[in-house]
Amino acid sequence: MEGRSVQLDDVWQAVLGEIEVSLSRGSFITWFKNTCLLKQSEETTVVGVPNVFIKHQLETKFGDLIIDTLRKQGASVNQIEYKTTPLASRSRVLGEENEGEQPQLTTNVIHQSEASLRQSSNGLNERYTMDNFVVGDGNELAFAACQAVLQQPGIKYNPLYLYGGVGIGKTHLIQAVGNALQVRNPDAKILYIATEQFVREFVMALKKRSMAAFVNYYRSADALIVDDVQFLADKDKIQEEFFHTFNTLHQADKQIIMSSDKPPGDIAKLEDRLKSRFAGGMSIDMHAPDFETRCAIIHTKAESHQAELEPEVVEYLATTIQSNIRELEGALNQLLAWCEVRSLKPSVAIASSLLQVHKARPKHISAKQIIERTARHFQIPLEDMLGPKRDKDIVVPRQVAMYILHEELHLSYPKIAHELGRKDHTTAIHSVRKIAQLSQIDVSLKNTMDNIKEQLYA
Ligand code: ADP
Ligand code: MG
User: For the residues 397-408, what does the mean pLDDT come to?
Assistant: First the structure.
C-alpha cells in the first residue's frame, strides 16, 4: 500500500461507508470491494479498481454516485479517472494486473468485457456470432432471414429490416451477419454503423468539407449494416444522403441490413421515399424470447464464462427478467462475479438478494406516468407541464421530466419533446444536458429525482 496516504484511505473509507448503505449488500461487495483512492487533488481524482470489468461498471453505472459521495465528504471533484491497479486487489480476488494467474472464470469475465468494448474499424465486433445467438420463439424468423441473406447476399431479402424492442438481440443478430459475411469473404468491405455514429460522421464531414470521402466510403461497401435507423428521423440532410447511398448500393446488389425499434412506416419524420425503400425488401419484427429461450440464453452465456448453473437458478433468472436480454445478461454477470469473489456456488437465494431491484421494478413505465409523477412531485398542474408557460417553477420540472424520460425510457429527443408538447427536439437535448450537469453538483436535485423514480417504481 506504499504511496497511498492515510488521508486518502480515510476519505475513501468514509465514501464507501456512505455508498454501502445506499446499495444492496451484493452490489456493494461486487463492485466496491478492493477499490481505493489513489489520488485526490483539485484537478483530478483517481480511483483504483481491481480490473477492467469493475472499472467499466463503476464508470457507467456508479459514476454519479461516487462523485456525489466524494463531494459530500468535502472532496472537490473535477475530473475522475478509474485506474486498474494491483494495489486495489488485496486478496486473490478478481484480476491481478499480471495476467495468467487469475482464476479461470475471472479471466473470462474480464476478457469478455474487453472484447465487448473493442471494435475493429469496420464497426464489427467479433463477440457477436450466428453460433452464439440462441434461436427460439420471438427471433426465429429474423434468424432464418439472416441465414437466407448469408446464402445469397444482395439478392435474397434486400434490404433486410429487423425491428423490435430494446435488448432483444437486434444488434447481436445484424452484427453476426456482418461477421459471417466477412469470414466468408475476407476481402469484402463489410461495414457496420450505428445510426448515431453515421449522423456524427456526416456532421463532421460537412464541417471539414470532406463530404466526398464520407460518401465514397459508404457507397463503396459490399454490405452495409445500419443499426437503429429510427434515429434518422427528423434529420433531412442526412436522410437525403442516406437515400442516395442506399440506392447506389441497392442497385449494385450490395446487401443492406437495418435495425430499428419500429417498422419503417411508423418512423415519424422519415421521408416517404425512405420508408418505401426500407420496406421494399424483407421486414421482420422480433419479440422478447419466451421462457425456454431465455433459459437457453442463460445457459449459453454461463457456459461462455465456464460456469455451471443449477436449473433452478437459471429458471429463477429467466422468470425474474423477462423482456430484456441485456438486463438478463447483466444480472447473470453480476451473480457470477459475486459468487466467484467469494468462492460460492450460485444459488437462488443469492440471485434473489442480488436482484431485488429488478424484482421491484415493473416491466413498463409509461412516459405519461413519468410526466404525471413529476408534475405531482413539484405540485404543478399537468396542463402547465405540457403547456406554453415559461416560468422558472414550471420550466425546471419540465426539464426534470425530460431527463427522467431520457434516463428511464431511453426515448429519442424528438419523442421526449413530443411527450411534453414541445415541437423542437433541441429543447429536449438542452434540458437533458442541463439537468445531467446540475444533478452532478446539486445534491438536492439528485435526491428529488431519486424520489420521483422511487415512487414510480413503488
Ligand atoms: P438490441 O439491439 O435489440 O437492443 P442486443 O442485440 O444489444 O439488443 O442484445 C442485448 C444483449 O443480449 C447482447 O449482449 C446480446 O448478445 C444478448 N442477446 C440477445 N438475444 C440473444 C440471443 N437470442 N442469444 C444470445 N444472446 C442474445
Ligand atoms: Mg441495438
Answer: 93
Atom of ligand 1 nearest to the CA of 259: 2
Helix (H) or strand (E) holding 392: helix 392-404
- Segment holding 163, helix H or strand E: strand 160-163
d(CA 337, CA 109): 8
Q: Is the pLDDT of residue 94 over 50?
A: no
Q: Which of 61, 19, 37, 54 is nearest to 341 (CA)?
A: 54
pLDDT digits (tens, 9 = 90+) for 168-207: 999 999 999 999 999 999 999 999 999 999 999 999 999 9
H or E stretch covering 83: strand 79-84
Coil vs helix vs strand at 223: strand
Q: Which bound ligand lies closest to the C-alpha atom of 134?
A: 1
Q: Classify 239 in phi/psi space as left (phi over 0), alpha (psi -120 to 50) or beta.
A: alpha
Name residue 28's amino acid. Answer: F
Instruction: List alpha helices for 62-168, DSSP H.
Output: 63-72, 104-117, 140-151
Whose CA is closest to atom 14 on ligand 1? Answer: 326
Cα distances (angstroms) measured from residue 162 to each of 65, 215, 243 = 37, 25, 18
**Ligand nearest to the Cα of 125, by number:** 1
Distances (CA, A) of 360 to 168, 241, 320: 21, 45, 10
Residue 289's closest CA among 323, 313, 250? 323
**Rg (Cα) of the chain, in Å, rounded?**
24
CA of 56 to the centre of ligand 2 (A): 19
Centre of ligand 2 to C-alpha 282, Å, is: 19
**0.85 exceeded by pTM:** no
Task: State the CB neighbour count (10 A cutoff) for residue 396.
Answer: 18
Nearest to 111 by CA among 306, 392, 308: 306
CA atoms within 13 A on the CB side of 208: 11
Sheet with strand 223-227: strands edge to edge: 190-194, 223-227, 255-260, 160-163, 282-285
Q: What is the pLDDT of residues 202-225, one digit of tens each?
A: 999 999 999 999 999 999 999 999
Lowest mean pLDDT among 42-46, 55-59, 298-302: 55-59
Can you read off the three cell numbers belonging to residue 11?
476519505
- H-only helix segments in 91-139: 104-117
**Whether the predicted pLDDT of 81 surpasses 80:** yes
* DSSP state string for 371-419: HHHHHHHTT--HHHHHSS---HHHHHHHHHHHHHIIIII---HHHHHHH
Distance between first and last Cα of the chain: 43
Contact by Cβ (8 Å): 103, 42: no
Q: Which domains does the chain have, with CATH numbers?
A: 2-90 (3.30.300.180), 140-285 (3.40.50.300), 291-358 (1.10.8.60), 367-456 (1.10.1750.10)
